[in-house]
Amino acid sequence: MSIKIDSLDVMKAEMDIQERTRMEDTYVRIEDIIDKITNLGVFPPLVWVWSWDVLKDMYNDYRDGGDPDYCVSEDIEDVWAMFWRDADKNGFSLEYGVDDLHDAIRDWLMETGIVIEAEEDEEEEETDEDE
């Protein structure tokens, strides 16, 4: 048997105190984030935030060896300067979905030389040749 919740007050009353506190705290945090993003000073601000977050995640993954065939050639501060410089021509957008944004950022990282092919160690090359 299911119980129909007719109002938000009933739903809140049925939540345990921990979940209710988490819900209310999350609301406050999200409102704060929206205020900060709205006043970011770039347009469109959500695209900037999302793009930089995706880029930083990719950068860290390459830096930490997530794909052993590639590595990073710039530090993150220089990457930010390049990201800022190329913002108008990048055309990063959420219009076509996150997969397209991910691909566009990966392509930009490769085209700018921020992510490059890793050089094989001489030891690895000798082992490959011996096989």
Query: What is the N-to-C order of secondary-structure elements (H for helix, E for strand)?
Result: HHHEHHHEH
Q: Helical proportion?
A: 55-70%
In total, the number of strands is 2
Give the count of helical stretches: 7
Task: Point out poorly predicted stretches.
Answer: none
Distance between the termini: 67 Å
Structural class: mainly alpha
- Apparent shape: elongated
Sheet with the most strands: spatial strand order:
1-2
Summarize the structure.
With 131 residues, the protein is mainly alpha-helical.
Model description:
It is a single chain. Helices cover about 65% and strands about 5% of the residues. It is mainly alpha-helical. It has a two-stranded antiparallel sheet. The longest helix is centred in the N-terminal third of the chain and has 22 residues, at about 15-40. The termini are far apart.
Task: Give the helix/strand layout.
Blueprint: H1 8-14, H2 17-38, H3 45-63, E1 70-72, H4 76-85, H5 87-90, H6 98-111, E2 115-117, H7 122-130
Antiparallel strand pairs: 1-2
Note the main attributes of this structure.
131 residues, mainly alpha, 65% helix, elongated
